[in-house]
Design goal:
- The protein has 149 residues and is α+β, with helices and mostly antiparallel strands.
- The chain folds into 2 domains: 23-72, Signal recognition particle alu RNA binding heterodimer, srp9/1 (2-Layer Sandwich), CATH 3.30.720.120; 86-149, 2,3-Dihydroxybiphenyl 1,2-Dioxygenase, domain 1.
- The chain has 3 helices and 11 strands, in the order H-E-H-E-E-E-E-E-E-H-E-E-E-E.
- Strands 7, 8, 9, 10 and 11 form a 5-stranded mixed β-sheet that branches.
- Helices cover 24% and strands 33% of the residues.
- It starts with a helix and ends in a 5-residue tail after the last strand.
- Residues 22-145 form the VOC domain.
- This is VOC domain-containing protein.
- Pfam families: Glyoxalase.
- InterPro entries: Glyas_Bleomycin-R_OHBP_Dase, Glyas_Fos-R_dOase_dom, VOC_core.
């Protein structure tokens, strides 16, 4: 009888889908909306869908939206943790990882544009990655699927 209940419970769990489907959009704090929108469109070629006093909407290659919102005080989306990459000290963590198709080209473009960029790293089965900061100090990770490299 107990085994029957367990099988029923396991069967129900297997049929359930996660209630959160995907990330639709992300919000980034910026100190100057006009300058930030220009930077993201020029550096990354993102489409500026809308720009008004309420913020700017940028469109990534897969259609996901990236909102830029001007902050009332200097702030970034970064946070400090000691739970990353075996780091026992404090680590300034990025809030987003962007997937790209040509990471070497993007890394070079960012360096050539004077963007604060960390070295390109080959993490074997995890693929190529690097980190960069936007003009407001928001830190991001960039990744390329090793299957497409």
């Amino acid at each position: 009888m107990e085994q029957q209940k367990m099988r029923k419970l396991e069967s129900r769990k297997a049929e359930q889908k996660p209630m959160l489907k995907r990330v639709l959009c992300n919000y980034l704090p910026v100190s100057d909306l006009e300058l930030a929108a220009k930077w993201y469109t020029e550096i990354f070629g993102l489409e500026l869908k809308r720009r008004d006093p309420g913020g700017a909407i940028l469109v990534l290659g897969d259609g996901q939206w990236l909102f830029l919102l001007e902050t009332t005080e200097k702030r970034t989306a970064n946070f400090v943790t000691s739970q990353w990459d075996g780091n026992e000290k404090t680590y300034e963590m990025f809030s987003l990882t962007f997937e790209v198709e040509n990471i070497v080209e993007l890394h070079k473009k960012l360096r050539d544009s004077g963007v604060e960029v960390e070295p390109l790293m080959d993490l074997d089965s995890c693929g190529l990655q690097f980190k960069f900061k936007d003009p407001d100090g928001n830190k991001f990770n960039v990744w390329q699927d090793p299957a497409t490299a």
